[in-house]
Design brief:
about 20% strand; Nucleotidyltransferase, domain 5; about 40% helix; single chain; alpha/beta; 5 helices
């Protein structure tokens, strides 16, 4: 099973591709990174380029699940609206027949839910989230918080979906319910 975690943004979009094998209970990092859109001048150009890049990832890796964080309002309504546009453009890819044999499922999580599954604490810091990712995936180097956030949301899906079924090795995670 291939999981694509996305941390959408109008200037930087993080992505993380994970593969989970239920038979071996292993999570493998396939690819992660940041789509930098700074060079493009207008929001519309950045939006189109972000969508094209995610389309390429989907067509190249054929994920089964696309995961992203739910929108939350923080300080700036203008930024929230732009983020909603970026998410909408990317999520519209789910309705396209990129891979006719496969339907991609969408899973959205609140930021605190992601942190709780990855670290055991719903209000964990960015550094704690990164340490939680490393605990599950092994040593890795990430470029930005956007990349680690994308990996965290993908990892959240694996932990939530397979830990509760008892298929996952208990020594690899902190139970978020305790």
């Amino acid at each position: 099973m291939v999981i694509l975690g996305i941390d959408p943004g109008s200037r930087k979009t993080g992505f993380g591709l994970l593969e989970y094998c239920p038979l071996t209970n292993k999570i493998k990092l396939l690819k992660s990174g940041v789509l930098n859109l700074y060079r493009l001048e207008t929001f519309e150009e950045r939006l189109c380029q972000a969508r094209k890049n995610i389309h390429l990832l989907i067509s190249s890796f054929a994920p089964d699940i696309l995961c992203c964080e739910k929108l939350i309002y923080r300080k700036n309504i203008h930024s929230l609206i732009q983020l909603a546009h970026v998410r909408g453009a990317m999520l519209s890819l789910l309705s396209e027949k990129i891979n006719p044999e496969k339907k991609i499922l969408l899973k959205e999580y609140a930021p605190n839910t992601v942190k709780k599954w990855v670290t055991g604490q719903g209000h964990a810091s960015k550094e704690q989230v990164l340490q939680g990712i490393i605990a599950h995936l092994g040593p890795l180097s990430v470029q930005t918080d956007d990349e680690s956030d994308a990996l965290a949301v993908g990892l959240c899906y694996v932990l939530e979906s397979f830990c509760v079924l008892g298929n996952f090795r208990k020594d690899l995670y902190v139970d978020p319910l305790y």
